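Hi R.,

As promised on Friday, here is the backbone we talked about, encoded as structure tokens. Could you run it through your design pipeline when you get a chance and send me back a sequence?
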């Protein structure tokens, strides 16, 4: 698993779009408006990516199971964790190297 950690506006989503195109990985994003932004980034770069899904769609997997999804890229993982925890602050996380 690759971690992209940088400031807001630094091109993280661009990097995820390029990774999605390279690996044919589905991007999971916080909202439909962010999904629209991801699609605009992909179009502006002339790359094809799998149809992104929202956090809600991701958590209700039956909406995309059987569609050939082989891997995921989570855009804004801290927002995803906050979404899953229903807004309860997360004090810390650990990641395995």
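Update: got your reply. Pasting your designed sequence below so it's all in one thread:
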């Amino acid at each position: 698993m690759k971690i992209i950690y940088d400031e807001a506006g630094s091109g993280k989503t661009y990097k995820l779009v390029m990774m999605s195109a390279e690996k044919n990985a589905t991007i999971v994003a916080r909202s439909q408006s962010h999904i629209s932004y991801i699609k605009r980034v992909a179009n502006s770069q002339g790359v094809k990516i799998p149809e992104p899904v929202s956090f809600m769609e991701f958590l209700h997997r039956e909406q995309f199971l059987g569609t050939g999804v082989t891997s995921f890229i989570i855009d804004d993982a801290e927002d995803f964790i906050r979404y899953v925890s229903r807004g309860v602050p997360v004090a810390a996380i650990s990641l395995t190297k």
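One thing I noticed while checking it: Strands lie at 26-29, 53-54, 72-74.

Thanks again,
M.
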